[in-house]
Structures
1.
Amino acid sequence: MTTGEITIDDLRATLRQAAGQDEATDLDGDIFDVTFADLGYDSLALLETAARIERERGIRLADSTIVEAQTPRALLAAINAQLVLA
Amino acid sequence: MTVAVVTGLGVTSPNGLGVDNFWSAARGGANAIAEIERFDASGYPAKLAGEVRGFVADEHLPSRLIPQTDRMTQLALVAADWALDDAGVRPEQWPEFDMGVVTASSSGGFEFGQGELKNLWSKGGQYVSAYQSFAWFYAVNTGQISIRHGMRGAGSVVVSGQSGGLDAIAHARRQVRKGAGLVVSGGMDGSICPWGWVAQLGSGMVSSATDENRAYLPFDLRAAGHVPAEGGAMLIVEDAQRARARGARVYGVIAGYGSTFDPKPGAGREPGLRRAIEIALADAGMEAADIDVVFADGAAIPELDSVEAAAIRDVFGAAGVPVTAPKTMTGRLCSGAAPLDVAAALLAIRDGVIPPTVNVVPADGYDLDLVTTTARNATIDAALVLARGYGGFNSAMVVCRSAD
């Protein structure tokens, strides 16, 4: 199991693995506050991404937490909050 | 009534990716049946299949679509892209509710589903892909094509085994008659994976032969089952007037269609295939003499071959029409088979050539004029395509040369 805080680069890598990358977006740019919708990811893409992070980190996130986190900053905050508790 | 025409073809067949490769292989009698490479089939009673080789999804589709799609959906998306391109259609220039999608499916995304079942049982539910929710589903090809091209008009899937390939195209014609400007239609299947293989073996109709030239021999005394295959074809079906107005090249008209269901086994009544042919001819306003070639279903089960030969004889007379089964080169593509035959029939009309039924020595008793070994040149204005689905489905479709 991977430990430590999850970074934006970890999230980028997991998004690419789980759901690919929209050709029209620059995932490597400053995406902290870009909405997942604008990055080309729908709720299923986020559920699949979150499931992979949960498996790697040994945490559980509520589906509502995942869907309500509209930006990478919000999702990272939710995940890292769980990691502190884990 | 509105005339529905075919203006674009997209083919992913075991014997060719793309219309030109497929058609040149089919005319040349190239057999694509071979030992299975997609999984280790050495422990199974059947080891031959018609696989689509050399298809790399990443080369054709955006990375967003790869993790969420089964192989048969990847094939369907690419065939749809090619068909639209062939038709000169740029979907972004069309009103989105003017375009629909009607595909056939017989198994859904088996290979994807197998992978996720394996994850479930070996690792646990949290390892099952979120995309399993739809990637296995019969309607997924229709949905993915619709989303990719913004086609928000009528969308449906027809599930009736091999005959579904014709039933879907007939439903596309129905949608065009109701006012749709364009419908992407056809069928794509592919379940050459252990789970899909076992499901197909369960029919008891799969050939266990190991010689690729003797494995699938419809209308032959040696017939002992078929070889399963993957792939299919997508067609662009349009309103003839509107196609003409935009200057589209027309392959041909979907002129007639009929479908029937067989009586209960043991009922002692005639199977439904002959009636399906007659309904299709009547729907096309044609007589038997108007048909220049029949693309047979070619089950390669003696009893079913006998039923098909009798139906063709009853309608056309003994050796009364050239008959061919080019699927002897590919195996049976489930719901993809008939759309591929419709594509071949339209190309036969265009080029005046009937692709052959390879490897088959026709049994005398069937009294069919089977085009064997090599292609036959002939003027073809109208073709009849037959397809039967497991469990009693019969469908027949007439396609013909466009009047203008």
2.
Amino acid sequence: MNPVFAEKAIVFIPAAEQRGIISNGVKINGPNGFREIDMILDTGAVYTVIAWDVAKDIGYDPAISERRMPIVTANGIIEAPLITVQSIRIRDLGAESVDLICHDIPEITGIEGLLGLSFLKHFRTLIDYTTGLLELTAVG
Amino acid sequence: MEMAKANLEEAKREYAGQWLAFLVVEEMPTGELLGHVIAHNPDRRELHRELREKKVDRAYVTFAGPVVKPGYAVIL
């Protein structure tokens, strides 16, 4: 059965975390279950990114993915696996069949993913820094 | 007997500096999360390995500490 999603999700950004907009508890669904992880909003990233281990936990094997995407890192250009997860959900708002890249974020951060355009393109996105608010609204 | 639910924020204080896998059982209207700590480990990869070995199909994996190390800024 397809999941039923809401029309709007509102995420409050704690003032202490405004060095980066963190969305807590983003749910990534795959064939073996789901993981909720903390992600940094990255409106400049074409793809959403999750750590390899998160992909493996929910039933994907990035190592054998035939789809690869060149990405630029601090250490140069690498070919990162591209997979399609069953769905990504924030609060009660979600998108199905989302493409994302598997790549480990440096350990200096306590996050396991970047929320990029492959997810955000499904929504009208409002970021209000003055009130610490990220609002996603379903379109269409 | 049902195991008492833990508060995620309290669990983060108890396991400060570690990665936690938390089974969310209930979300309060305030946004507070209640549930159970499934596993904790200072090493993120070891935590995930343990979850796969135990075939844990649902968990909230989060770091019990500052998301960005103090003194650093993230540029993506």
3.
Amino acid sequence: MSQRSLIISYFAWHYSRAFVEIWNTCTNYIWAVWHFFSVPLLLKTFFSPWHKMDVEYGKGFSIDNFFGPLIVNTLMRLVGMVMRAIIVCLGLICIVVVFSFGVFITIVWIFLPVIFVTLLWQGFLKI
Amino acid sequence: MDYKTLAEKLAKYAPAVKLDRVLPSGLRKFLKTAFLVLTFVFLFVSISSVFYQVVPVKIFEGLEIISLSLWLLFFCLDAFYDSLYFDDLPLTAREVFFKTPAESGSFLTATALFGADPDITARFLKSPVGKNLMMRLEIPENERPSADIAFPLQTSSADIDNFLANKKSIVSRTEFQMNENDGENLFENFVSALAEQDKELSDFLFRYAIRDKELRGAARWLSQKSEKEKRTRRFWGRDRLGRVPGLGKDWAYGETFELEKFGGRMEEKFDFTSRGLGEHEKYVDEIESVLSRRSEGNVLLVADDDLEKEDVVIEFCKKILSGKILPTLEHKIVFALDISAMTVVCGNKENFEKEFLNVMNQSARAENIILFVNDLPSAISAATAIGSDVLSLAAPYLSSPVLQIIAGSDMKNFHERIESNIALSEKFEKIILKDDDEQSLVELLEQRADELENRDGIFFSYPAILQIAENASRYFEGLVISDKALDMLSELPIAVARQGRNIVTKKDVATMTETKTGVPTGEIETAEKSKLLNLEKILHQRIIGQDEAVNAISSSLRRARSGIESKNRPLGSFLFLGPTGVGKTETTKALAEVFFGDEKKIMRLDMSEYSGDNALRKLLGSFESGHVGTLTSLLRENQYGVLLLDEFEKAERPVHDLFLQILDEGIFSDMVGKKVNARSLVIIATSNAGSDIIWDFVKQNKSLAENKQQIIEQIVHQNIFRPELLNRFDGVILFHPLDETMLRQVATLMLQKLARRLEEKSLKLRIGGELVNYLVKVGSDPAFGARPINRAIQDQIEDTVARRLISGELHPGSEVVLTEADLQR
């Protein structure tokens, strides 16, 4: 393989497989964020009590026996829901950021050879 | 597959191979970093220049932009290279656009295949990967290697250069063929096919004792090392990204603060990057199956090696963390719980039981906990020591659907304490981890060697790795082989560092094995060579006559030391038959002294002691009484030497059966099923059985050698030994009764021995014909061979000398002259 064909191979790669690589990496990061923020698990357990902290209802009916645990258990579920909602939202925001970054890199990549030549040219002009 | 098909298959890597030759990856890496640094330096200087106006700002801005553009250029080149370089990396977690990677080892094969030389062998040997492979195979032996695959040895070795310069034939494109279905790794198949087709290459490798097994193994190892390096570098892959622990995973489950006081998550307690590297997939699948099948299922791992049990559980945890586990086990957390430490911290029964129940209650309530208790028998013992019955406390949780336990035990305690407890053993599904076979041991050693190479900058040759595995299996049988092999592997770098080297070779392994076991395994040195070649002569300095015995033993030992004998049997095994006092024991002693360097290397068992009902128990030990066997403990202490079984015919038949196995396989099991190695022993059984038959033949002036078969048949006929037992010995040797000439020689030898002892007291014994004649006269009892001579020396000569010493007749420096009259007094 000559050096000329090496350069041709590079450009063929730059405008074909490189895009697949960029979007593969981008989907990997989206996947990692999705799992880092445990989005599927948190949605599945959205209404569960916080750390399984619940109080058992006492034997026999009384106001204390019923409403005490009811309030605590409702509160624990509410705490769990709020915390999960925050994390899920954060996760979704991060996913949007990663996706946007992927789009930005793709656009830059298209013009990268031009950017390289321009930068080099500008650099020499300044010197 | 022909060359054309292979080249087409690998054509996509050609640009990367070319790029590496034009601009080697090490140089690219250096330049990329340098331009990035320069960009920041120029940026900093140009910002400073705005304020201080030392030099025109524009110049630095220009230099900064040029550096940045050049960094961009090298970044793009690296991205281009990496895209091809990582193409053959098998991925654990599937990625959207790369579901089926190329065959393992494809990139390495491409680097070895593409080149201008018409000879494919030359291309391979001149390529960086070819040079690296040769270095791994100790070719040439004294070159300093680099462990870096990407930037390997750049200087070609003289041996390889000479080989290529004198090569008469070539493997051309049209001739090259390789079998596609040989194995999973393309690089391994390629080098093997090349050596198979290039006779000159295979002869060259054979000169370094490299056969297909070593060549393939080293190629596979190199390919795996490259794969590992790729896996570490590819930080953007799901395999790496997925290892980051997530947020909120345990929010749906209960708290575990009580448990955290006495235990820890496996991933926090153990180094997951260097352990549990995938060699126990079978056991991990079994654990997964048991724990997911029944929510109240628990697992008991049985193995002597604690590390191995941990490794299996670490692999299981990795499977959970990777998300590739059955849904019932998703989000489970494996906690290592140290019950022994808990008993120490709590101090007494009450505190311990309270804490233990807290831990178990909280773990059960959390609903996502799997507890790992590595050494269950120790935990039971520790609790028993403070008066608590931990098994009763744990019993309700063992059948609970919300808490699962993986416990570990060694084989001995499993049989003694767990298997016998039916209630307990019913709660656990038992998984016995079998000893590694040699291949999986080699793979384990390869992985650990990689770690040591990266950590200590050491270089292991592949034959060294194979030698460690072979020696560990051969000389450390009965112990945890993988432990012993890994111990050797980690001690070797220290040993070679003392000699100022950083390469571990096969020879270093042989030296270390010899140091540890006393068994000579390395190359035969000059002095030993001469001894081995003249064994008969040396043995005859102590043994009079008995040519058959001396010749048989000498041949057997030469075979053993040269390494051509079967490795799965003792070094040698002989049955010495003959009347008393003809040199059977003396031959054994001479053998121990000459071959093993010391008469004390004899382990003697008087087999008449093993004639009762409990003979086997005495030899092997008893499981019920805990009594340790004589034979097992003897061999565990000294695995290299002579095992002398005196009066073998008097042992019970089951004992003979045991030796059938030992003589055949060189290995047997003790009372708890642990293997005992007898493969580095020379086993000599002596027996007076058949003496009368031998005597009859001698009296009739018949040759024993010519009538040996007839004599053996008569011994079998008399039911003294069974034919299958006699056939297991390497040789059944008949010892001749001694005639008068022989007795004279024996008497002279015995007197010389006495003279040496007297010399230590500064006395000189004059050995004359009269003295020898006297000894033969009083000691010539055909029934007892040379034994009466020995008695006569003790009773008469030694006694006379002692009397003279005490009376002052003899003093240091005197010459002891004894006449027949002196001795008859």
4.
Amino acid sequence: MDLFVSPATPWADRRLSELTTGVIGYLAAMAASETVAVTVGPFEGATCYALMFIALVNLTLLARVREADFAGYLWRLLAVAAIPPLERLLMLCMPPLRWGLLQEYVFWSVPLFVGIVVLLGTPLLSEVADRRPRLVRTRDGGYGLRGLTGQVLVALAGAGLGVAAGLGAEGQLRPVGELLRTSQPAWFGIVLFVFAGCTQELLYRGVIQPVATAVGDWVGVVVSSLLMASAWLAWVGVVVAAPVVVASLLFGWAVHRWHALIGVLVGHGLFSLALALLWHRVLL
Amino acid sequence: MLAQGSLAAPLGLRNLDQIYFVPLIALLVLLLEREMIRSAGGSRARTAIRVLDVAILPLLVAFLIILALRLNQIFTHS
């Protein structure tokens, strides 16, 4: 009878009955908003995401006020659920006038990064501190070779999946030199690694996954991976769906396995770099 | 010329795509809500304001970026 029940947690008796519907409804709302953005237009899509964001902020506010002991998980889940709509809102609204696509990464990443840093200073992760990944620390608190080797492999797998996505999108290799002549190489690497890779991984693996893991170990991995994949799919299109979903799940598993972010940060950067080098339309 | 250039479209809002107003309106809604809650007072209001402050900050940064780029565009063209 206890086969599907995880070890007791404050939420063990509430997870399936109260949260499954909420998680499914939330993912459905995200998918519907993305569908509106793609089929109707970015303005309508951004409006849907803004409404979602405001609604989730208010639900977080209500849950936070009602949970007088501040030990509840509901407000934490609602708080992290509000971040992906904010990210998509910024991604849709922040390509400023006359700026290239490469600069868009910077312009939507900066407000999001500020929000994440402020969020990390709140009690959001205090109840899940043991699940919170660190930059390089392994599950055992050390820097073991096993974890390091695995993370190097994950990072290289990110590069391989980026190549697969780029080839799938473009169908052919393009000369790298041409791209680097038109786009400053240092700026190119910094933007992809720091702004795209670090911001998204800090958000999805550093904040969302540990909070969602309180519901269930693999719920955190799957939900954070699906949310990150959805943001990617909207950014580069459904043509690179398979590598993006595989990369998202791989990164989620890696953080769950080693509780360290360094491997997926590099892996995400290499994925973006490989995809951009092979598929010019992503950036230029 | 000055009247036509600066008074007819002083902020160039007609050239600003409507999508830029979505995060700004969201920011205004949250700021309005914050002030309404603040006027209520009490410990619950302070807790709610802390939640709203975290949500407001990224939108405020986005607003400042849009504003800075818009001003840059206006002064570059003038």
